[in-house]
Structure formats: structure tokens, C-alpha cells
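Example S7 (C-alpha cells).
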């Protein structure tokens, strides 16, 4: 372990000197093991690897790295963020209920509503920002709570430590999707969470060129259960993608510093613009979640959402953008812009979206690492074009 996460990002997960001492080459980067199977000295006598669905040395380096960064017992690498969420939900049994935050990624809602509900696993949508009120709704069938903090797309903040104080005495699993923050900005296990989930496609990958999911658990018991699920269902991350993700994480610190600096400037710009009815960004002092965010995270992150004001045409706003690309996903070095109602949250029924506060005028920004003046200039042009004359 290292004293500072910036160092752990670069040197964690794999030690070339240890590799050299064990008869390896001492290569500075882990090797990419493109092998499905491994020779055994005799039946059942192997080096720790027997079949790459069960374990692969390249994937192991990545899994060790994310476990170290999140401060957990073990890490697991999946073929996508949704595969990671599916595996975590597979810890539940028929008849169990999972509570989810009242604004989450549409794919999380979809898999619960359309897949796991068919297997007898139920869900409730609740305001997880109020742990005291939530505790009154923790009936015996509630076995897990899955939150995003900040949440997608309204950037609402959940007090993870307060929620853990409610769940732990009851033996309820607290799962935190840490995709928006990454371990560089927030470490949920240290706040009392049991499981941390990442869509590593986003900031951890950082270059919009791979799909991956990561999970870190807090106990050996959870590690054993989750490895069994991963091995049984087979949603593993392939060796070369594991290598690419391992490499990308090395630059996470410097990328996030630039992402966040740009996001803070854009949020301040939006907060004073007449085209914007409301800004959602926990890094702003006036945001409802600002105090909690300051207490449990390094800063407000790099995602910013806002409601376009009346008198501005949202279709024209999107059509006029040039630098900011209209696209799904987030967390790449390039700035992306999305319309949650028709994109990331289209799978959520309109009435539930309305209850969540996701309006037709909501815009979600993933702020990249370009020069922030160019980002703001692009928004300025789009606002001017969108205004009804």
C-alpha cells in the first residue's frame, strides 16, 4: 500500500520487482495472457490458474489494483458495468427486496424491473438522502440498498456513512455505485459500504474505447460469493481489455483533476446564465448536497446537469453544439452531452421520471479535459441559437 492514492494509481496491482524475484522478466507493465487454459503438473495440481473464466493473470492485476484503490478485500472485473450490477444483484434470493435511489441510471432500473423482478427479486424506489426516514421502510424482506452518489442524472448526494449506520445493524447489504466519483475522489468502503461498483467504461477507462465493470467487496465472505457468481455466469473482462483498463487507471489522477477543474468552471458559468433554470452540481456551495459531498468526497466531480429555461428550444440547443458531442456514456477525455429523457433514462416510464424530477428540459454534461474556454464558448453559441426570438 502507498501513502497517497496518486502513487497507488501508478504502482498498484502489480509489482515488476516481485515478478523478477519470482523468475519473471520484471516487465514494468503486466503481461497480456491471451490463454484460455493453463498446463497442470498433474490433475488438480496447478499454479493458481486453470481456466481463464475462473482467473487470468492480466485480469488479476487489474482486480488487485481496484481492490487496493478502494481499500477492499477483493476486486472483480466484469465485461460491463451492467454485468457487474447483475452479479451483485445475484447475491439476493427470490422474495428479497432491494431499495434503489430515486434517481439512478436507467439501466439499473431496467434490469430490476424487466429481469430480476421475474425471478422474484423486488425493488423499491426511495429517497436515500434521508437515512432516518428510510430506516422506517426497512422491512425484513429488504436485503440490500443500491445507491449512486452523486446520482445519475440529478447529481443528488446520499450520506453514505449515515446510510451504513442504518443498514449494518440490520445485516442489509449497502452497495454504492461509485462510477461518477472513482476511488480517486470518493471511497465508499471507508464510509461503511459493503460493495462498491464501477462502470469502468467511464472515468476509469477514460478514453471511450472499452466496456468494463469493476466490483470491490469489504469481506472475504462476500468475495467468495461474488467470485462464485462471476465464475458461474461467466461475465468476465477479457485479458486485453483488462490490460487497457489497467493502463488507463494510471492516469486517472491527472485526468480527474482537469475534468473537475473544468466542471467547476462550467457549473459556475451555468449558474449565472439566463438560459439555465437550475444547475445540478454538488460542487456548488448552494447545491442541497454540497455539505455532505464535501464531507465524504474530495470535490463535486465532473458531471454537471441543468434544466434549460422556458423560452429556449432544447432540440435547437442540441443541434447547435459543435465541440460537445451528443452521445451516450460519460467519463471520456472528450466532453459529451446527453438528454436523459430520450437517452440514458428512456427505459424509465414517464410517470416515474416525473416523480424523480427528470424533466424534458434536463441536460446532462460529461465535462472533458479540453480547454474550458472552448467548452463554455460552445455552450454559449447553443444557448443563443436555442432562444425563442
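Recovered sequence:
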Amino acid at each position: 500500500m502507498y501513502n497517497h492514492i496518486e502513487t497507488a494509481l501508478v504502482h498498484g496491482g502489480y509489482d515488476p520487482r516481485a515478478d523478477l524475484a519470482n523468475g519473471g522478466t520484471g516487465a514494468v507493465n503486466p503481461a497480456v495472457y491471451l490463454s484460455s487454459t493453463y498446463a497442470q503438473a498433474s490433475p488438480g495440481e496447478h499454479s493458481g490458474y486453470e481456466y481463464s473464466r475462473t482467473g487470468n493473470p492480466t485480469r488479476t492485476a487489474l482486480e488487485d489494483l481496484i481492490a487496493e484503490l478502494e481499500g477492499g478485500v477483493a476486486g472483480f472485473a466484469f465485461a460491463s458495468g451492467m454485468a457487474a450490477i447483475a452479479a451483485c444483484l445475484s447475491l439476493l434470493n427470490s422474495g428479497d427486496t432491494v431499495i434503489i435511489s430515486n434517481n439512478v441510471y436507467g439501466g439499473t432500473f431496467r434490469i430490476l424491473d424487466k429481469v430480476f423482478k421475474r425471478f422474484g427479486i423486488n425493488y423499491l424506489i426511495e429517497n436515500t438522502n434521508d437515512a432516518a426516514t428510510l430506516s422506517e421502510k426497512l422491512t425484513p424482506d429488504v436485503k440490500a440498498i443500491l445507491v449512486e452518489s452523486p446520482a445519475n442524472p440529478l447529481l443528488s448526494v446520499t450520506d453514505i456513512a449515515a446510510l451504513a449506520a442504518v443498514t449494518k445493524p440490520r445485516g442489509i447489504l449497502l452497495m454504492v455505485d461509485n462510477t461518477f466519483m472513482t476511488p480517486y475522489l470518493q471511497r465508499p468502503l471507508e464510509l461503511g459500504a459493503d460493495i462498491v461498483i464501477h462502470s469502468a467504461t467511464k472515468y476509469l477507462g477514460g478514453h471511450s474505447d472499452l466496456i468494463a465493470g469493476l466490483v470491490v467487496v469489504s469481506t472475504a465472505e462476500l468475495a467468495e460469493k461474488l467470485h462464485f457468481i462471476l465464475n458461474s455466469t461467466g461475465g468476465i473482462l477479457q485479458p486485453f481489455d483488462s490490460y487497457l483498463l489497467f493502463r488507463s487507471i494510471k492516469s486517472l489522477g491527472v485526468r480527474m483533476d482537469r475534468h473537475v477543474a473544468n466542471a467547476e468552471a462550467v457549473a459556475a458559468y451555468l449558474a449565472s446564465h439566463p438560459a439555465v433554470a437550475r444547475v445540478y452540481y454538488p460542487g456548488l456551495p448552494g447545491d442541497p448536497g454540497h455539505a455532505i459531498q464535501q464531507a465524504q468526497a474530495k470535490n463535486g466531480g465532473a458531471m454537471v446537469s441543468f434544466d434549460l429555461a422556458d423560452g429556449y428550444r432544447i432540440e435547437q440547443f442540441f443541434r447547435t453544439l459543435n465541440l460537445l458531442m451528443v452521445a451516450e456514456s460519460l467519463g471520456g477525455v472528450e466532453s459529451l452531452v446527453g438528454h436523459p429523457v430520450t437517452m440514458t433514462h428512456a427505459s424509465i416510464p414517464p410517470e416515474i421520471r416525473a416523480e424523480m424530477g427528470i424533466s424534458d428540459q434536463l441536460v446532462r454534461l460529461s465535462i472533458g479535459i479540453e480547454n474550458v474556454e472552448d467548452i463554455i464558448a460552445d455552450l454559449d453559441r447553443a444557448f443563443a441559437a436555442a432562444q425563442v426570438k
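Notes on this example. The chain has a mean pLDDT of 96.
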